[in-house]
Amino acid sequence: MSETKDELAGVVDLFGALTRDELAEALAELAFKQGKSVDESAFEAVIEEGVRDFYLVEADANGETVLVPGPVAFPALPENAEDLPHIMDVPERTTDRERLGERVHERLADEARTTDEERARYLVDVSYDLEAWAPVEANDVRERLDESLGNRAN
User: Fold this and answer.
1) Which CATH architecture has domain 5-87?
2) 21 closest CA partner among 100, 90, 103, 95
3) What is the pTM of this model?
């Protein structure tokens, strides 16, 4: 499977929410359906990269940690992904978008304190995406990041 972050989000979006193990299983199923051999041990790194870059967001669904498409994702379906709901038995889960937005805001605020210039610029973009994705204001994070970037320019 092509492991773009938008495709990772697309696989998760098919189900609404997946655990990390379920997403890894889905990636393995896709690779099989596409006739590709892959190193399944690499799935965790691919998933973690999606989380790091806000394509996937960790959420709580009935006491279980799941992944949902994040604020920067434009979920796209990789080849043969439409078959996954027929192959995998995944329970229906619901998450609270407002609470998710608050969690992402908290994460952005924490990361804004200790980030390099390139990451700070990326996080400014994420903050705008967050406001479109969830009912959350991120002006405070943007101001902190902008101040940080301005201080580095001096």
Assistant:
1) Orthogonal Bundle (1.10)
2) 90
3) 0.91
